[in-house]
Amino acid sequence: MTQTSAAPPAGAHTGENAAVATGLTKQYGTGDNAVTALREVSAAFPRGRFTAIMGPSGSGKSTFLHCLAGLDTATSGSVVIGGVEITGLSRTRLTRLRRDRLGFVFQSFNLLPMLTAEENIRLTGRLGGRKADRAWFDTIVDALGLRGRLGHRPGELSGGQQQRVAVARALLTRPDVLFADEPTGNLDSRSGGEVLGFLRTAVDDYGQTVIMVTHDPAAAAHADRVLFLADGRIVHELMEPTIDGVHAVMRRMED
Ligand SMILES: Nc1ncnc2c1ncn2[C@@H]1O[C@H](COP(=O)(O)OP(=O)(O)OP(=O)(O)O)[C@@H](O)[C@H]1O
């Protein structure tokens, strides 16, 4: 990954932003098969804020999230997470940074079926992440309403409960950023609303930073702001979004 001439967003290397992307470009394939999924995308994600990323199918949302989170490597541009430039980190250091400083929640809950809810939640800590104290574990478990389910395996839990376990697991190490890719995509609206409500609480009450990709205007309305992608570029930013406001931007993008 090489630097581009794009100027880093303000505060790129200070503590005020949990994540900063500068001039991020991602090309898949080469020659006639080349697809440019991201085109010089720059954005800063302030600490303690909830950002949603929206846009039409194929606009580059997942690619953007994956490049920000060090799950994929951009073709050019840079990403700074918690003050650390991840561009050019060795695979080992990147893996450690992801494990210790980032949390992930995906559409499919990605829990280990043979482990109980409690064992799944504690897994990241056992693998070497930041040590979680008992009080923080209790706070998350109670806030997510999982106290009575800790001994159950994923197969004995509803989808909403499984996703709440995944959120607890992601937050246990108090990550610099919690990345969520369509976290409510497999949930009914009530369970999805509970998960989103808790992500909001994690930001408001615990100072966490959340970056979430979603198709759903109701989900995006839980965020502090929405970034809209189209054809690999950020084309609009909406602060304090409402469901109607998100719909209005999406309609304008379709025109
Ligand atoms: N591994 C890959 N190889 C080749 N092209 C890819 C790959 N992953 C994504 N793309 C292409 O990059 C573009 C952006 O894809 P991406 O998955 O980031 O979009 P998205 O906005 O998340 O879409 P969706 O909402 O459908 O999940 C698309 O044209 C897609 O086909």
UniProtKB/TrEMBL annotation:
Q: Name one GO molecular function term.
A: ATP binding
Q: Which InterPro entries match?
A: AAA+_ATPase (IPR003593), ABC_transporter-like_ATP-bd (IPR003439), ABC_transporter-like_CS (IPR017871), ABC_transpr_LolD-like (IPR015854), MacB-like_ATP-bd (IPR017911), P-loop_NTPase (IPR027417)
Q: Kindly state which keywords UniProt assigns to this record, in alphabetical order.
A: ATP-binding, Nucleotide-binding, Transport
ABC transporter domain residues are 19-255
Species, as recorded: Actinomadura algeriensis
Keyword Transport in annotation: yes
Q: Does this UniProt record's set of keywords contain Methyltransferase?
A: no
Pfam families, per database record: ABC_tran
* PANTHER family documented for this protein: ABC TRANSPORTER RELATED (PTHR24220:SF685), IMPORT ATP-BINDING PROTEIN (PTHR24220)
Entry protein name: ABC transport system ATP-binding protein
Q: Classify the source by domain of life.
A: Bacteria
